[in-house]
Amino acid sequence: MKRLLLISASALLAAATTARADGVESTTVGELIVTATRLETRIDDAPDARVITADDIAASQATFAGDILETIPGLSLSRNGDFGGVTYVRMRGASADKTLVLVDGVVQNDPSSPNGGYDFSSLDLGDVQRIEVLSGPQGSLWGSDAIGGAIAFTTRELDGWRASAETGSLGTVRGAAAFGVADDRRALGITASAYGSDGVSKAAVGTERDSFTSWTVGGNARLTLSDSVKVDARLRFNEAEADIDGYDAFFAFGDTADRSKSRSWTAFGRVRADDLLGLDQVFSVSLYDLTRDSISAFPSSYDARRTTWRWTAGRGGAGDAFAFLLGLERDDTEASISTGETSDLGATSAFGVVRVSPVAPLTLTASLRQDAPDDYDAKATARLAAVLDAGHGILLSASFGQGFKTPTISQTVCDFCFPAGPSTGLKPETAEGWDAALSWRSDGDRFYARVTGYRLEVADQISYGVGRYVNIERTKTTGVEAEVEAEVTDRLSLKASYAFTDAVDESTGAELIRAPEHSGSLSLLWTGDRLKAALTVRAEGEQADSDPSTFSPARRDGFVTANLSGSWALTETLDLTARVVNLTDEDYQQSLGYGEAGRGLFVGFRLRN
Q1: Are 521 and 536 in contact (CB under 8 A)?
Q2: Among residues 234, 512, 537, 550, which one has the fewest Cβ atoms lying within 10 Å of its Cβ?
């Protein structure tokens, strides 16, 4: 395996020695603007923010969100089998339900799930323009569910058209198409993508293939009504079906005929009014609807709906020495439980963010939020961040943040509890986290390095105990994240990251499951006149897990995998693509007891006007 990785890496490095001096321009990372921070902010002024661009997605040829998020330091993936297995993302050791997920500002977390987490298995990247990752407690920005952090996806606005198709191992076929018109005054577009694969067995001990299909359609519109008033809207629909494995009549885990289906749609509408009463004001409404069906010997169906109204008013842009934003928000959520009954939760919130640069080298950002859930006591959360430009490309940053998470609908009514009956004495989770970082960027942006140390403590974490939901007194994660980006030549670049994560239940001293202590990735990116290629190697150490056959604590072995992707510009409008996943045919499990695919080869094309 090591020999094959060295050969692949050497091929890219050798290409660097023949690179011509007229290579493509590099993107200046420091000029990226982050919007998931509520207040538009330069990425260098936003501690714990990372941006995955459209170029990053194209270079990796990633199909689904989990394929690229797993390379971000501090993020770990848990997946119940390849090709459509339930997939969660954990941030900084926090459980998966503490990752808030947004698409175009619409919260995607599933209110009908017992823990309220988000399943990434069918989040297709075909229409995604950028991904912003905010690590650490973001309660003061986004309220409940953002204890570990927030991941925000922004879909594409296109002027022109594009299409792509791919086929390969395990009967896999994927296609995508998009069309749009856009100028300064208006925009209108539509996207569609579909994916299907015969897959592999979800259970590692299984022998039959478990297929997966998913398709997504989306639309966007924007119109400038006057010099100061603009409206825009987005719509996205996804339907997915996956064969899953479960338990037979003897309660043995393995091949079954079980299937899962999901249908979800989100809609977002917004009106912007610039300089209204001296402030830039935005009013928006977002809608979310999800249906999940489990087809098995014991079928079940769950429905969830969410409506969020939001108003913000502020002043100042990303480069201004002073900027602020104030907002009001109302969230109404309802979902069904295992009995088929429907229950609801709601919250009214107010928040504010201010950024100030009192002296040229120093930038301070503070945010404060008051959430008033309908069924629980009001809670205030705050965050303070500071960035000091020490000169010579050196930045020092630190932040302190708070978060909280109300019990979900399932936890509140005590679904699956024995004896049945609503929860009594169950408290919302609260969290505090801090971090400090040192980064350096060379002149010309050819080299960038960053090291971050952090601690995250969660009080009253909710877990399923003996027949009921209970609060765990305290969990704590301490960790270090390191990352490097370098332009080796005008055509060859390198990205590397490493994360150390020590996540424990402080009441027992036990490790938290599915949070590997050591993880990291290395990517080599080649950009030529016609050839573009990327080699990504990812490694995880062993981790605490749960055996799906016995439900007892166990350990999952560590692994090293590699993906190789490339494209060749046949003409100015047509690229031929190829990628190899699991290049070394590693036999591994992302989550203990669940199957992952071996080596796979996929070829296709990308066409654009």
Answers
A1: yes
A2: 550
d(CA 426, CA 362): 42
pLDDT at 176: 97
The residues of the chain scoring below 70 in pLDDT are 1-31
- Provide DSSP, 123-150: -B-TTEEEEEEEES--HHHH-TT-SSEE
Q: Which of 287, 290, 288, 293 shows the shortest CA–CA distance to 263?
A: 290
Other C-beta atoms closer than 10 Å to the C-beta of 159 total 12
Task: State the pLDDT at residue 418.
Answer: 84
Give yes or no for a contact between 318 and 286, defined as CB atoms under 8 angstroms apart: no
Q: What is the pLDDT of residues 104-120, one digit of tens each?
A: 999 999 999 999 999 99
For residues 244 and 295, give the distance between their C-alpha atoms in angstroms, rounded to a whole number.
Answer: 10
Report how far residue 90's alpha carbon sits from residue 76's, in angstroms, rounded to the nearest whole number.
5
On the CB side of 95, CA atoms within 13 Å amount to: 23
Nearest to 215 by CA among 235, 190, 241, 233: 241
Helices vs. strands in the chain: H and E counts, helices first? 5, 36
Closest to 287 measured CA to CA, from 239, 342, 334, 325? 334
- Residue position matching structure tokens 């390198």: 494
| Per-residue pLDDT, 169 | 98
The CATH code that applies to domain 2-608 is 2.40.170.20
Is 350:141 a contact under the CB 8 Å cutoff?
no
Helix/strand/coil for 7: helix
Q: What per-residue confidence (pLDDT) applies to 20?
A: 32
Distances (CA, A) of 568 to 180, 201, 275, 453, 579: 25, 33, 48, 40, 12
Alpha-carbon dihedral angle through residues 267, 273, 279, 283, given to the nearest 10 degrees: -20
Instruction: Report pLDDT for 81.
Output: 96
112, 413 contact by CB (below 8 A)? no
DSSP state of 8: H
Q: What whole-number distance in Å separates Cα of residue 283 and Cα of residue 271? A: 5
State the pLDDT at residue 31.
67
Q: How far is residue 38's CA from residue 53's CA, in Å, rounded to a whole number? A: 19
What's the Cα-to-Cα distance from 236 to each of 190, 192, 240, 305, 534, rounded to whole Å? Answer: 10, 10, 13, 15, 30
Q: Is the peptide bond before 419 cis (omega within 30 degrees of 0)?
A: yes
* CA pair distance 185, 303, nearest whole angstrom: 38
Count of beta carbons in the 10 Å neighbourhood of residue 530: 11
Three-class DSSP category at 4: helix
Identity of the amino acid at 265: W
Residues in the chain: 609
Exposure of 595 in the CB half-sphere (CA atoms within 13 A): 24
pLDDT of residue 18: 34
In terms of C-beta density within 10 A (0-12 exposed, 13-18 middle, 19 or more buried), how is residue 26 classed?
middle
pLDDT tens digits for range 79-101: 999 999 999 999 999 999 999 99
